[in-house]
Amino acid sequence: MSDTHTPPALSDEELAALDAHWRAANYLAVGQIYLVANPLLTRPLTPEDIKPRLLGHWGTSPGLNLVHTHLNRVIKDRSIEALCVWGPGHGGPAVLANAWLEGSYSETYPDVPRTTEGMNRLFKQFSFPGGVPSHVAPETPGSIHEGGELGYALTHAYGAAFDHPGLLVTCVIGDGEAETGPLAASWHANKFLDPVHDGAVLPILHLNGYKIANPTVLARLPEDELDQLLRGYGHDPLYVTGDDPATVHRAMAAAMDTAVERIAAHQRAAREEGATERPRWPMIVLRTPKGWTGPQEVDGLPVENTWRSHQVPLSGVRDNPEHLRQLEAWLRSYRPEELFDAEGRPTEQVLACVPEGVARLGSTPYANGGLLLRDLPVPALEDHAVRVDKPGSASHSPTQVLGGLLADIMAATAERRDFRVVGPDETASNRLQDLYRATGKAWQARTLPTDEHLARDGRVMEVLSEHLCQGWLEGYLLTGRHGLFSSYEAFAHIVDSMVNQHIKWLRTSRRLPWRRPIASLNYLLTSHVWRQDHNGFSHQDPGFVDHILNKSPEVVRVYLPPDANTLLSVADHALRSRDYVNVIVAGKQPTFDWLTMEEARAHCARGAGAWEWAGTEDGSREPDVVLGCAGDVPTQEVLAAADLLRRHLPELAVRVVNVVDIARMQPHEEHPHGMTDAEYDALFTRDKPVIFAYHGYPWLIHRLAYRRTGHANLHVRGYKEEGTTTTPFDMVVRNDLDRYRLVMDVIDRVPGLGVRAVAVRQAMADVRTRHHAWIREHGVDLPEVEEWSWGG
Questions:
Q1: Burial (Cβ within 10 Å: 0-12, 13-18, ≥19) of residue 48
Q2: In what order do the strands lie in the sheet with 200-207?
Q3: Chain segment 207-219, per-residue pLDDT in tens
Q4: What's this model's pTM, rounded to 2 decimal places?
Q5: 358 Cβ partners below 8 Å, 6+ apart?
Q6: Which of 538, 644, 664, 544 is nearest to 604 (CA)?
Q7: pLDDT at residue 89 above 90?
Q8: Quick one: which of 150, 205, 250, 482 is 20 to 30 A from 6 by CA?
Q9: pLDDT digits (tens, 9 = 90+) for 366-397
Q10: SS3 776
């Protein structure tokens, strides 16, 4: 749908005000890169006014300043609730400059007032020890997107728009960023945006032509090819091109007015007239020179409108008098005496287009999501708990049980719409299909009679791009809502880099008292390594946990619940938590039920504990051996090994320890959930052999526990990168995690037992040999494995 209405042209007074604001922002951006003193140029610049290390990025800043200036105008004139996601990686000078101009920065940081002194502090702190980063970062008021890594701006913008029907999310996409895979996938997010219940996203593709040292792909496409590409993505592009400020201001104002009017028309058609056709949402293509209004030439080489303007156009200002002269001329070209009064305050003309209060981009509560966050209505766990009369007497799919809980949450949030589940095409595969009792899958494209569960207002988000799932959920959480990311375990690695940035964001925001806590980012990793026997080696990788546990211990949490009730308890905790990244690894295949709901709660609160019913120690002495386990399949194998030991070596005192919270293995000094040495020694003993069956790569447990007194006695079995398409039990045999190998490990490591139990060890080895022959003949596991149940 195109709106033929032509917006009124800017008056000369409006044009002058917009240009004044833009020049002021440009001046402040340059000042942040270069100056430590003399902020208003009340005297000629000297080398002492210049920072000793020149850091920052000028090239993208004038374009970002232009967008901010014109967003201010439409927000103020049309009373729009808005948020902006600034994609270009190093656009910090521009966004900080605009926050300071509008006053939101000084309200957030009173020691940086809108005065000459405050301007000087704004300049000095930028990319300076003890100051602020060169990116748009958590320290930047109004931001939800870390600019340090490219590719995720547009998916964050859509995440912010979902379920915020009154919000306009503008997203500035740098043309370098537009070359990344995640950004390319993000253009398809408009097929999931519901014009009735969601806000709108206005992409602004800023084509300034260059990356660090090369031209950009989209900037060099013929205009008709670029237009076809963007229309093929489902957008209705508007074009703003030029290098004359007055001409560009007029064109940008017209484009912004047209865009917001078209958005309003699409929303009105869907909300009031019942239109169901997927809108062609507007977007803006902004072509302005890289480094616009900066030095045109330095040392005989062109700079403006080339890659040389990307970072610091004049690099030798402290030592080169000609560079110093050029910098002063550059700064004075903005005519700062017209923009700031004698005390350094912006003039009325500069602030004429700036909105007030929370309408300012730096003050919007949508960028400080904790201000909007409400507690999630998680139902009583007893409503979904499975009955456990005795350990191992029945089995359930843990994730299917969890699906019922999530469905109740989805139903309870039907009116307030602040909970979503995202995942790459696997919700039903991961046994969470009960969600469809409460909502459908978000979908705005064409539907066919054979489709199931698709709904324009659905709050399950499925798309075969982990990058989009991650970005949507991050944007959703950062703007004050709740959610869960369900994924096959092996493919969580696709978002390794994205979760890095989110963890860094949370760690930094925890240190900013004005940033309110947000709902945690919760992963459910299922279809995991031990039950990917049908898909094979490509789907077998438990290493996401290792990646997460390398990160800030104040933010990351990893849980491996062994059955359905412990999964419910862990999920309840994770969904209620704030400012964490919680990783939950749980199987979707039927698993033995070990603990009642009451026992599961207590066990999960401890994070690790001895299962007295599973061992054979009588309390009169220390155990002879400790069987440790973490994860559902390792827990089953340990209990099966304990059962074998009970039958074949009844005199052996065995302790079984299950670990749900894997960080408990770390020293308390290294992680807030870590055990003290006294706790660890009491549970695992100081000198007895510990045979530990772990869900993932075994060296992680060694790394977490290497400082423990009994580490030399710790022997870990886990995934050793041995996989294929095979039977479930063959997966554990291939990786020496099976019950028979664990019994052999006990015999090998308990002092003196090897000689006495040689026949038992030989019997265990014989079963493994028989297993290999059996599966090759019959294609299924041994009957004693398939039919095993806990008999303790």
A1: exposed
A2: 81-86, 167-174, 200-207, 281-287, 235-241
A3: 999 988 899 999 9
A4: 0.96
A5: 364, 365
A6: 664
A7: no
A8: 205
A9: 999 999 999 999 999 999 999 999 999 999 99
A10: helix
